[in-house]
Structures are given as structure tokens and as C-alpha cells.
Amino acid sequence: MISPSPPPPQQRRLPLRDFVLLATVLVFFTLIALNVLDNMHRAGLTPGFAFLGQRAGFDVSEALFSYSADSTYVRVILVGITNTLFLAAVSLILATAAGLLVGLASIAPSKALRLLAQAYVELFRNIPKLLILLVLYVAAVGGLPQVRQAFSVGPVHLSNRSVVIPLPVNDMALWLHIGGFLMSTLLVALLARRNRRLRERTGNAPQLLPVMIAIYILPPVVLALLSMPLSWSVPVLSGFDFRGGARLTLQFMVIALTLGLYHGAQIAEVIRGGIEAIPKGQIEAARALGLSSLQVTRLIVLPQTLRIIVPPMNNQYVNLIKNTSIAIAVGYSDLMSVSGTIINQTFRPLEMMLVTMAIYLLICLGLTSALNRVSDRLRMREGR
Q1: Is the pLDDT of residue 383 over 60?
Q2: Which ranges form a coiled coil (predicted)?
């Protein structure tokens, strides 16, 4: 028997043409950097980032942690980062939910649902997101009631200024509840992993839903029996505004809704394309076995669609994070907003642009890397 020939050796040396191309690009950007530095020196400017430790001297519309005008520029940049991440997280959830519902409606048997889904996609996909933002903002300011006439549902109050909701008090009981929730989540993840391996090995596994519900309910019940229940700060109308609770400003809600609607239309098309890529024979076979439409969607359509749509969804999520920068149009203190204010105060456009670009790059690269890992794991699972 003739043994197979060894594979050809891999070429480790960089080809000359690639070396010349990289050297040319490096020289080009080096010349640009030297020219910028020379112009700054001629203008009497010394490049550097020492100004970030100076007093900011301006307020922000909202912050997720303590901040005042006496804080440093570094702290206000952290405020902008956390506001951007919070806005992006809420917008991602809204866009994904809207995209999933509209994507499923676009392939529904009902012609009315398909027409409504198509109208939604065509409307929000072909209108600039900034225009959607301004229309929703003007409509919210003029259409929602004032604070004293706020629309209230229990302890939740909605006005043309904000929505105010109850907030757990930051005490020892809160952290114990958070710890119990994290431990329950870890235990549920371990049980789900064990259950999945048992199903792969034997083809059968016990139902985990009742056990999962009991695991999540047990810590709050135990803490309540130990006289350590959660304490809540409930908003109360005092004067011209509500006191207590947590506040989501009108600007935040309108921006999150805008990005959710706009990118929901894009995601709906991605999901529709992923569903239509599944062979129809599999769906027909599942129906022939007696599965209901809900079971077909949950067990056949969505798992395969997920493997198909993760790469294009990666692009949509990154675009959504970058599009949070339109928040500056309605005065929400995101990263772009605070960066612009810092530039106006310090006259350091180059340094702040580099800092802002680096932050956006790290956020988007982190999300892209995480979704690429998810995509790789799904493909590996499919290949087994």
C-alpha cells in the first residue's frame, strides 16, 4: 500500500508584494500623523491626554452612577460609556423582539399578517432613523400628559418628562437577593447542560421547567422567612415632579424605541430569509408527524434559523451600537454627546476623537467576537 504524500509545506515568509503593500500603507499613515503633529506644534498645541484628569464643569442629562460637574473628564466619559451601553442593550432587546415577531408574521399563513409585516418593514427600512427619532420625540412631548396629570398604572407613572418606576433599595437584602439569583442561574445552567448531554446520550431527558421555577423561587422565599425581604423605593408626586424610584427619561425611551423599530425592520428581513432557507420538506415532515404549528416553529424552524442568521445579525447589532450616536439629537448624554462637549471645552478634538473611536471599536469588537464564538459553536454542534 502506497502511503499518502505529505502535505506541501506552508509558506511562512511574507511575499514581496505583500511586504511592499504593508510598508506603503504604514509610510502613508506615518506621514499623515507627522503632518498633524507638525500643524499642532505650529498652532501652539501640545498633544496629550493629561486634560482628562481636569474638572469637567458640566452636567449630564442622566447617569447610572453618581456624577457632578466637579467630576473629572474621565468620569464623564465613563458616564457616556455606561449610558451608551445601557441604551444599546435595551434597543437590542426591543429590535430583536420586534424583528422576531415581524419575521414570523411575514411568513404566516394569514395574508393580513404578511401585508402588515411587509408594510412595517418597508416603512421603517426606507425612512432615515434620525427622522423617525425626531417624529417620535415631538409626538411624545406633545402627546403625553404633564407630570401632574401623569398616566399611572399602580406605582408606575408616565409623563412627557419620563417614566418613573419602583426601585429596590440598595441594602444588604438586595445583594443577598442578587447573590441568590446568580447562584440559581448557575445551578440552572449546570442542570440544563446535564439534561442536554443526557438527551444526546439516551434520546430522553426529564422536564426541567418545574425544577427551574422552584430553584429561582427558593432564595427569595428563604430570605423572606429570615425577615430579609426586598425594600422598595416607590415614586411619590411631590411638588412638580416625582420623588423616589428609578427614572427613565423621555429622551432615553424615544431613542430606544426608534432604534428598536428601525433595526427591528432590518432584523425581520434577516429572520425571514433564514426561515425561508430551511428546506420545506422538513416542515412538511414535521406536520405529517402530527406536530402543531407552534411545535414546528419552536422545534424545527427556530433552531435551524438561529444557525443561519447569527452572522448577519452580528452586523445588525454592531450597526445598532454605532447608531446610538443619534441620541445627541435629543440631548441624551451618550458617549458622542459628552465627547462633543469635552471637545468644545478643551479644544482637544484629535485626542477626544481617538478616545471615542477606540471605545466604540472595543465595544463593537467585543460584541463581534462573542457572536462569532456563538456562530462557531452552533456550526460545530450542527456538524456532529
Answers
A1: no
A2: none
Query: How many CA atoms lie less than 13 Å away from 303 in the CB half-sphere?
Result: 10
Mean pLDDT of 251-280: 91
* Cα atoms in the Cβ-side hemisphere of radius 13 Å centred on 244: 15
Q: Where are the alpha helices (DSSP H) in 3-53?
A: 16-42
Instruction: Give yes or no for a contact between 260 and 95, defined as CB atoms under 8 angstroms apart.
Output: yes
Which of the listed ranges 47-61, 85-99, 160-174, 200-214 does the model predict with the highest average pLDDT?
85-99
Helix (H, G, I), strand (E, B) or coil at 368: helix
Indicate the pLDDT class of residue 168, thresholds 50, 70 and 90.
Answer: confident
Report CA 256 to chain centroid distance, whole Å.
10
The residue type found at 164 is: V
- Identity of the amino acid at 264: G
Question: What is the C-alpha separation between 330 and 62, in angstroms, rounded?
Answer: 13
Ramachandran angles phi, psi of 165, nearest 5°: -130, 160
pLDDT value of position 11: 58
Alpha-carbon span 263 to 125, nearest angstrom: 8
Q: How far apart are CA 305 and CA 272, in angstroms?
A: 9
Map out the domains of the chain as residue ranges.
53-169+233-381, 172-230
- Work out the burial of residue 155: count CB atoms within 10 Å of its CB; fewer than 13 is exposed, 13-18 middle, 19 or more buried: middle
Question: Which residues, in sequence order, are bridge partners of residue 168?
Answer: 232
Pair 242, 164: CB distance under 8 Å: yes
DSSP H helices in 106-232: 111-125, 129-143, 172-202, 209-225
pLDDT at residue 200 greater than cutoff 80: no
Nearest to 301 by CA among 144, 103, 142: 103
Q: Which amino acid is located at 80 in the chain?
A: G
Average pLDDT of the chain to the nearest whole number: 86
Pairing of strands 232-233, 167-168: antiparallel
Cell matching residue 109? 399563513
pTM of the shown model: 0.83
Q: At what angle do helices 209-225 and 172-202 cross, to 10 degrees?
A: 160
Tell me the mean pLDDT in the region 222-240.
85
Mean pLDDT score, 110-124: 92
Chain center to CA of 12? 40
> Cell match 498633524: residue?
36
* Stretch 294-316: mean pLDDT: 83
